[in-house]
Amino acid sequence: MSKYDVVIIGSGPGGYVAAIRCAQLGFKTAIIEKYNTLGGTCLNVGCIPSKALLDSSEHFYKMNHEFAEHGIDVTGAKLDFAKMIERKQGVVDITCDGVAFLMKKNKIEVITGTGSFKDKNTILINGKDEIKADKVIIATGSKPINLPFAKIDKDRVITSTEALKLKEVPKHLVLIGGGIIGLEMGSVYLRLGSEVTVVEFADRLTPGMDSDIGKEMKRVLSKQGMKFELSTKVNDVSVKGKVVTVKAENKKGEAVEFKGDYCLVAVGRKPYTEGLGLDKAGVKLDERGRVEVDGHLQTNIPGIYAIGDVVKGAMLAHKAEEEGVFVAEVIAGQKPHIHYNLIPGVCYTWPEAAGVGATEEELKEGKADYKVGKFPFKALGRARASMDTDGFVKILADKKTDEILGVHIVGARAADLIMEGVVAMEYRASAEDVCRMSHPHPTYSEAFKEACMAATADRAIHV
Ligand code: FAD
Q1: How far is the CA of 141 from the centre of ligand 1 (A)?
Q2: For FRET with 326, which of 51, 167, 371, 440 sits at 20 to 30 Å CA-CA?
């Protein structure tokens, strides 16, 4: 029977990063993955394929809506959707192969099969073969939440996983859920020509982000043609032939109905622990079905840790990665730290949206004394040059000390721009610190500096 210092169950960004760090720290490491490819949700059916389709569809959208204004005539250009899906799969394959290469390079044993606990230190592979582990890291991720009245048939009623590999562009995609995954997938198909109707229970989009982001996203995506039914509660989804009917109740209490050829259910994800045999090891779950962990990401059973989507916190790949490194270093006796408040969230629509730190709602709730600096991209030369004038940078800073408490951006390249906020906040910069740093001209980053100027003393230059 093989024996390892550390065995990791699940090869998503949490698991495979933990495995590499464990190997770097000198542990004999094995990783168990039930699928044939490594990389988990993120690489196979999440971050990477969705961004590949977002990039392809954005080219198509720009070609149809913006090229003419740039003086480029592309009359006669056509969409080859099958090719687009094929390219996406190519990107996925090469990225997953990259993880397999990293496992080999770091001498990590890859075991294909479903891992489950026999006891605290014994893991069964597909219920039979046993391996022994001194320490175990649970990194089994998450899966989409189902609605009890919306049976996912994977044909007409789908999750993001099926939406990434459709055989045709929907005529009318009815999207349940106006969160990040829904808006990203909705954007893909809107750009490719689908009618897209978003039905959302909350009164705004991207509910976890600063409310100004949700408002701006609604304005901009509406301009692109996406339709929104907010404060609307879906209560039934049925399929007849190729027609999906979504029934709901709107904010006035009226019954409303949407008919489409596809319905994408994107109402969030839940931790995945099925078949893990946690009871055999005595590992506890919390009230929301997540593996319960302490400040060291250790479960109630010493020597068993858990990371990523299967534990509390943001369901994001980079959060899982941070936790993978953290646990490996804890096991090695080091004293790592994760600044959870500084894990940025991003929505990869166009324009992109990103946020880090406190939202304005959170500051209000905590009765914080804060000030706001905002700068619109339409006042920026770089944004006009690229026709990306929608959105803003919003800086929230402490009223007395000027320390930056939160950064919220809607705009071109917000996903990359947000890192200036993360670095500034990690070093506890004031808004004025950022004002005094030279920002290259012309760049989108100038909007960040201008928003900080607006926050410091209402002294933005270009508005
Ligand atoms: P996962 O990536 O879910 O990996 C868990 C792995 O464990 C899986 O491979 C699973 O097969 C395996 N497993 C489970 N049980 C067992 C078992 N018993 N034995 C063996 N193997 C097992 N996040 C971002 O940060 N940025 C994005 O742009 C982004 N886009 C997304 C787009 C979509 C459409 C989706 C669905 C998600 C997106 N996410 C994004 C979220 C991101 O994918 C997850 O937060 C991330 O994958 C979580 O990593 P993880 O390692 O915890 O789990």
Answers
A1: 5
A2: 51
Ligand 1 in reach of 111 Cβ (< 6 A): no
The C-alpha angle 105, 107, 109, rounded to 5 degrees, equals 125
Q: Is 327 in the pocket of ligand 1 (CB under 6 A)?
A: no
* Beta strands per DSSP E along 250-369: 255-260, 262-265, 269-271, 304-306, 345-347, 352-357
Cα gap 108→239, rounded to integer Å: 46
Is the pTM of the predicted complex or chain greater than 0.90? yes
Relative orientation angle of helices 414-426 and 445-457, to the nearest 10 degrees: 50
Q: Please identify, by atom number, the ligand 1 atom nearest to the C-alpha of residue 309.
A: 52
Q: Which residue has a Cα nearest atom 29 of ligand 1?
A: 47
Structure confidence by residue, pLDDT tens digits, 391-415: 999 999 999 999 999 999 999 999 9
The CA distance from 426 to 432, in Å, is 15
Q: How far is the CA of 133 from the centre of ligand 1 (A)?
A: 23
pLDDT tens-digit map of 30-71: 999 999 999 999 999 999 999 999 999 999 999 999 999 999
Percent of the chain predicted with pLDDT > 90:
98
pLDDT for the residue numbered 457: 79
- 243: which strand partners? 240
- Residue 271 Cβ contacting ligand 1 at under 6 Å: no
Cα of 315 from ligand 1 centre, angstroms: 8
DSSP structure string for 170-195: -SEEEEE--SHHHHHHHHHHHHTT-E
Atom of ligand 1 nearest to the CA of 13: 51
User: What are the CA-CA distances from residue 33 to residues 38, 39, 91, 100 (Å)?
Assistant: 7, 9, 20, 11
State the DSSP H helix or E strand holding residue 405, giving kind and residue range, or none if neither.
strand 404-411
* Ligand 1 mean position, distance from CA 12 (Å): 5
Q: Whose CA is nearest to atom 23 of ligand 1?
A: 316
